[in-house]
Design a protein that fits this description.
elongated; 520 residues; 2-enoyl-CoA Hydratase, Chain A, domain 1; eight-stranded mixed β-sheet; 3 domains; 17 strands; seven-stranded mixed β-sheet; alpha/beta
Length: 520
Amino acid sequence: MAFEEKIKELLDKRGEAKLGGGQKRIDAQHEKGKLTARERITLLLDPGSFEEFDMFLTHRCTNFDMQKQTYLGDGVVTGYGTINGRQVYVFAQDFTVAGGSMSETMAQKICKVMDQAMKVGAPVIGMNDSGGARIQEGVSSLAGFGEIFERNILASGVIPQISAIFGPCAGGSVYSPALTDFIFMSKENSYMFLTGPKVVKTVTGEDVTTEKLGGAQVHATKSGVSHFVGETEEETIAMIRELMGYLPSNNFEEPPYVATSDPVDRIEDSLNSIIPENPNAPYDVKDIINTIVDDGKFFEVHARFATNIVVGFAHMGGMSVGIVANQPKSMAGVLDSNASRKAARFVRFCDAFNIPLVTLIDVPGFLPGTGQEYNGVIAHGAKLLFAYGEATVPKVAVTLRKAYGGAHIVMSSKYMRSDINYAWPNAEIAVMGASGAIEVLYGRQLKELADKPEERAQFIAEKEKEYNNQFSNPYYAARFGYIDDVIEPRNTRFRIIRALQALATKKDSLPIKKHCNIPL
């Protein structure tokens, strides 16, 4: 065969591989409003940066005459490229080939890019669109899942792992995304579940649609499995690119610095009046976040789940930071099981990847009731406590209004090795609020005044005033060094950035151990 013919053969095979399951199936994918695997990679990576692996690999299965149905690439596109000039490794399942089902060789391709990513210290982004295991391959398909899961586990905390769900993700397929750091879903065509509606009906008798069982909205609001939901695939991929701008490539690197023209010493007079006079009145903590971060740009994580706490990324003075903030606008900012595990997971991610933590505190306590106790709020609250106590990255906290009881301790308190703790002058740091404290401290006297309502009301008012004079300010905590400084709200941005700059060379350590035993 002449050299020119060999070149032609190569180009023909490349063209065949790029068609996946064929034009007819590509058209069917588009009719569903879905992009193909290659189109997704093109949107994700910088133009012209993609380098592909294993384009000519095919499956080895001969069961059920499978040798008659081979496709170059075997249902997944893998390789590496760049996002804003920074190297990442990617794989995208191709639904046009056998429904994107997992084969032994597909797993081999995915494992190859994951291994390479670990060697060079680069993030891995996986785009899922698969009907699950390739049944014809039996246990070999299941072994492929296991190989991927093990690599997800070993890579955890070493390189960022991002999953995007752009179609079905069912059965064993769901566990790889669940083991990664962040999950993105597109609103219309993506879903995740262990068992589908038909199996649910057979086993439990419950009638449920695919969307209600495992759609993007369900996982974004109820289960918390999904961290981000995009209206379209294009929007979802753009969000992935944006997220990568806050993350380092691996656990040995510092997060990226982004130069800004936003002055470090910018004064925000609006913060001096943002807290309502009524200590029980709500406000939106995101108004404070947007005011103090660079250029008002805050990238929220888990925005639709456990809305009583806010977490996300921003830049402050050009430095990438993770922000955790109680949200008085939702459930008065109280901590519950979902909020605790949401924040704990975020804190641990930031600590693993050298991202400093900024905590804004306004928390009246943990949510009481049998529902929470039966749901294990003690264990879930302990996760957040553990996460903050274990974190060795720079930690700066600001008490905005309330910090009561155990919730005060949990939220990056000084006792949890927080580095610098500020408070606004209206901050209340105590075991509990005045009304509850009076019930405990003066229970006998109140009982004696039970049939004297006027005297009882006057007694309560006097004692609450005494209690508030002592605790409804940050100075009592400051006397003991639990608050490093009481700051004017309008200077918050400047003080936090100065603190982060001072902590840039911080070195902290943990006792030597194989690993911790966080209360899961």
